[in-house]
Write a structure and sequence with these properties.
With about 350 residues, this protein is of the alpha+beta class. The protein has a single domain, classed as B-lactam Antibiotic, Isopenicillin N Synthase, Chain (Jelly Rolls), CATH 2.60.120. The protein contains eleven helices and 15 strands. Helix 3 packs across helix 6 and helix 4 crosses helix 6. The N and C termini lie far apart (about 50 Å). The model has no long low-confidence stretch (mean pLDDT about 90).
Length: about 350
């Protein structure tokens, strides 16, 4: 299937989108809030790792509140060099500037191939195609990288290492915020053998942005996601029945928790539903680093958290590989994958 980038390039003076990309808006698409009170929480990572005991305790509380109230937050003073973040963004841009033939080498036949380049989400089941090209790479436990552009491997390897360290620190803080101790999540979900997946999304200018969708409302299937953007906004998160713009912030990561965190926390921390919009003037690019349990780990509510609840477990356990396969092989639609595991109160 032709990429969106090629479609735009080959259709000089494109004024409308093909019918297959026309997305029907749902009634809950509005309102979109720009209220300052709806601003995304900010977590200072340096206080979590290097602050005084009092600063660290307050930051852990802030982290827990952000996870419970939003499932989304920004991280500042995170230790990943701004120059590396820019180099990673540039390298991904260079990848999408390769010829269609060069990118086709990484087309991949299977959803779980270690390197996969494509368009939309899952074109075999998508009823409507999304205005999005992507590059998906598994970078841990085994590191993979396309061979082009030449600098991509070196830059992405360093970026993988630095974001992995950041994710470990955040997950320790989140684990402590749940009262589980700082290593519970790491050990219970076997994170050392878990996947780290790098996904770069390209959203070229769209002649009818009000009809198209970059990615529809969905939650992430993993545990934690770290995201950077190229300075062009287009991300929105659902919060208290409103959509909130997540504007691009220099030298900060946008972090959201995924479905496995919701399961493990027995619903205390809920995965955030978010979506990507497109615009008619500028190309937006985002780079997401996904962190997941190991494929053979059965993810279920933490026993200690279940014991604190009067209603028992809120979700049935599932092997993470089975959950990821369920998520990737179906349409992207809210939290439908997670809904399969909910246990209704008796």
């Amino acid at each position: 299937m032709i990429s969106i980038k090629a479609l735009v390039a080959e259709s000089t003076g494109l004024t409308s989108i093909p019918p297959s990309y026309t997305f029907t808006r749902s009634p809950d698409d509005e309102p979109v809030s720009d209220d300052p009170e709806d601003s995304i929480p900010i977590v200072d990572f340096s206080l979590l790792t290097s602050g005084t005991p009092d600063q660290r305790s307050k930051t852990i509380d802030q982290l827990g509140k952000a996870c419970q109230d939003w499932g989304f937050f920004r991280v500042i003073n995170h230790g990943v060099p701004e120059s590396l973040m820019k180099a990673m963004t540039d390298a991904c841009g260079e990848f999408f500037n390769l010829t269609e033939e060069e990118k086709r080498e990484y087309g991949g036949k299977y959803l779980l191939d270690p390197i996969r380049c494509g368009t939309s989400f899952n074109t075999s089941v998508d009823k409507v195609l999304f205005w999005r090209d992507f590059l998906r790479i598994v970078v841990h436990p085994q590191f993979h990288s396309p061979t082009k552009p030449p600098a991509f491997r070196e830059i992405s390897l360093e970026y993988t290492k630095r974001t992995r360290e950041l994710s470990k620190g955040l997950l320790k803080g989140i684990s402590m915020s749940l009262g589980l101790g700082d290593t519970y999540i790491e050990n219970a979900l076997n994170l050392e053998s878990g996947l780290q997946i790098l996904i770069t999304n390209l959203y070229p200018p769209c002649p009818e942005p009000e009809l198209a969708m970059g990615l529809p409302p969905h939650s992430d299937h993993g545990l934690l996601t770290l995201l950077i953007q190229n300075g062009i906004s287009g991300l929105q998160v659902q919060h208290q029945s409103k959509w909130v713009n997540v504007n691009s912030t220099p030298n900060a990561f946008v972090v959201n928790i995924g479905d496995q965190m919701e399961i493990m926390s027995n619903g205390k921390y809920k995965s955030a539903v978010h979506r990507a919009f497109v615009n008619e003037k500028a190309t937006r690019m985002s780079i997401a680093a996904f962190f997941t349990p190991s494929l053979d780990t059965i993810v279920s509510p933490a026993p200690e958290l279940v014991h604190r609840e009067t209603n028992g477990p809120a979700y049935t356990g599932i092997k993470y590989q089975d959950y990821m396969q369920l998520h990737l092989s179906n349409q992207l639609d809210g939290k439908t994958s997670l809904d399969h595991l909910r246990i209704l109160p008796a």
